[in-house]
Amino acid sequence: MGAPRFKAGDRVKVLRAYPVGHIRTPHYIRGCVGEVERICGAFPNPEELAQMRSGEPKQPLYRVRFRQRDVWPGYRGADSDVVEVEIYQHWLDAA
Amino acid sequence: MKDEGSYRRLSYFQLMEVTLRELLVEKGLLTEEQIEAEVEDMRSRTPERGAKVVARAWVDAAFRKRLLLDGTKACEELGLDVPKLRLVVVENTPDVHNAIVCTLCSCYPRMLLGIPPDWYKSRNYRSRMVREPRAVLEEFGLRIPDNVTIRVHDSTADMRYLVLPMRPAGTEAWDEVRLASLVNRDCMIGVALPGAS
Amino acid sequence: MIGRSHHDMGGLPAGRVEPTEHDYAAWERRIDAMAVLLWGIKGGERRFTVDEHRRAIESLPPADYDAMSYYEKWIVALAQCMVQRGVVTTEQLARRMAEVEERGRA
């Protein structure tokens, strides 16, 4: 794979897009802005593996942290509450 | 291999299971012995294995550090075989409570803890845990104070998660075996706390 | 809902979490075992991927997705993937299922 585009601490935005196919980026997080918590490594692309293809080259996978109040309108809970989601690099842009 | 128990007619899905198993065996992809061995192997993977990891982290600060850095390696250190598992361990503190969900299906650290419970795979848990974790935790009887941050982890890709709960007060003199008995599966998912002393 | 797959349910309104669990039946455990073995996780040859398996489950009609139990979904997905991969044909499945059912009546 190429060098990872992001590192821990970077602000990233999840693509606001709704394609077809087997996708591991949940609907609720698309379009949201968060912070990279860590890079998990690089793995074969599940969207391709699901189509019986190799999933190569491996794609960087990140854990991204989002403030719940940024994800859900009217979120009931602490301001500091977060949701952390594993997201593949191709779903992320710099924010 | 027979279906033991009642003499009910097989459901459509049970028919499919028998059918697929027979065909896979006839075609040489699997053997009945392999299937049986795998069933037994999964049976042997239980929450007690996770409890061992938690108890060790409670008594050994250096192990705890290693566990938080690389959960898989730390499990292997304790002789726990966890094939293909990429374990991320998240620790509870006085300021932070962690909980795990897989909104998209039912991803879970099976190779460590075994097969997840029905509720973890249910529509209600998967839908609501990311959006209203405090309400869901209250339904489990766990009230997290407002000054404690909740981190919900949605297991969407290749990592799997284990919550490292806080060691209960009053257990300072306890040995690892006794400590492990306080830790159940639900503590390691994050919907319960370890038993009090 | 357009643009949202039925399985992608994070954040949707839903009811109280009933902390149900059941001791998995032998047939359910065998389904789990067959899938894990065929994914190649335990060292055997990988015959299909967990990703194909998930895709097959996600492709179930919404009413079926909701009504079917966990392992009912798994066995259908497993069968779909085995057909997709050319391991079995639909005819083989059909004839053997009918035969197994006949055995049950005997």
Spell out the blueprint of helices and strands.
The complex is a heterotrimer of chains A (about 100), B (about 200) and C (about 110).
Chain A (H helix, E strand, L loop, with lengths): L10 E4 L18 E11 L2 H4 L9 E9 H4 L10 E7 L3 E3 L1
Antiparallel strand pairs in A: 1-2, 1-5, 2-3, 3-4
Chain B lengths: L11 H15 L5 H13 L2 H13 L1 H9 L1 H7 L9 E5 L4 E6 L8 H4 L9 H6 L4 H7 L9 E6 L5 E5 L11 H5 L4 H5 L8
Helix pairs in contact in B: 3-4, 4-5
Chain C lengths: L25 H13 L11 H9 L3 H6 L2 H15 L5 H16 L1
Helix pairs in contact in C: 1-4, 2-4
Structure description:
The complex is a heterotrimer of chains A (95), B (197) and C (106). Chain A is mainly β. Chain A has 2 helices and 5 strands. The longest helix of chain A is centred in the middle third of the chain and has 4 residues, at 46-49. The model of chain A has no long low-confidence stretch (mean pLDDT 97). In chain A, 8% of the residues lie in helices and 36% in strands. In chain B, helix 3 packs across helix 4 (61-69) and helix 4 (61-69) packs across helix 5. Chain B is globular. Chain B is built from 10 helices and 4 strands; from the N terminus they run H-H-H-H-H-E-E-H-H-H-E-E-H-H. A two-stranded parallel sheet of chain B has the order 1-4. In chain B, strands 2-3 form a two-stranded parallel sheet. By secondary structure, chain B is an alpha/beta fold. Chain B is 43% helix and 11% strand. With 106 residues, chain C is an all-alpha fold. In chain C, 56% of the residues lie in helices and 0% in strands. Chain C is built from 5 helices and no strands. Chain C starts with 25 loop residues before the first helix and ends with a helix. Classes of the chains: A mainly beta (95), B alpha/beta (197), C mainly alpha (106). At the B-C interface, helix 1, helix 2 and helix 7 of B face helix 1, helix 4 and helix 5 of C.
Which structural traits does this protein have?
heterotrimer, A: 95 residues, mainly beta, SH3 type barrels, 5-stranded antiparallel β-sheet, B: 197 residues, alpha/beta, Nitrile Hydratase, Chain A, two-stranded parallel sheet, 4 strands, 43% helix, globular
